[in-house]
């Protein structure tokens, strides 16, 4: 599952569009930024930040995990960042659809890209 190069906004059933990082006001401004986009928001308290590694940062995986029928008003901002002190490693698990899963492992000299 390919991951886009830039940060992006994902909306189930409508796909992903580039996230204009030049306009990124920081987490405190996220609700206002999305409001300008016409997406509903309840403020930062309603958001749960997560780290996505591997295919979980792919719009195709997000479409599979957040189908429009169940999440019609969802907006998922995928903001690219760097995580220091960790590396991505294979996990000893297979997903329900047969892929090898990934996990984060502490590695003081590494920096990895996450969304």
Structural summary, described in words:
- The chain is built from 2 helices and 5 strands.
- The protein is mostly beta strands.
- A hairpin with a 5-residue loop joins strand 4 and strand 5.
- The model has no long low-confidence stretch (mean pLDDT 79).
Residue share in β-strands: 25-35%
- Total strand count, please? 5
How would you sum up the global shape?
A: flat
User: Any idea what the radius of gyration is?
Assistant: 15 Å
Helical residue percent band: 10-25%
Uncertain stretches of 5 or more adjacent residues: none
Total of helices? 2
Distance between the termini: 14 Å
Question: Quick one: biggest sheet?
Answer: 3 strands, antiparallel
Strand order of the largest sheet: 2-1-3
Topology, element by element:
Elements: E1 8-11, E2 15-18, H1 30-36, H2 59-65, E3 76-78, E4 81-94, E5 100-114
Antiparallel strand pairs: 1-2, 1-3, 4-5
Summary, kept brief:
The protein has 115 residues and is mainly beta.
Key structural traits:
5 strands, flat, mainly beta, 2 helices, 12% helix, two-stranded antiparallel ribbon, three-stranded antiparallel sheet, 115 residues
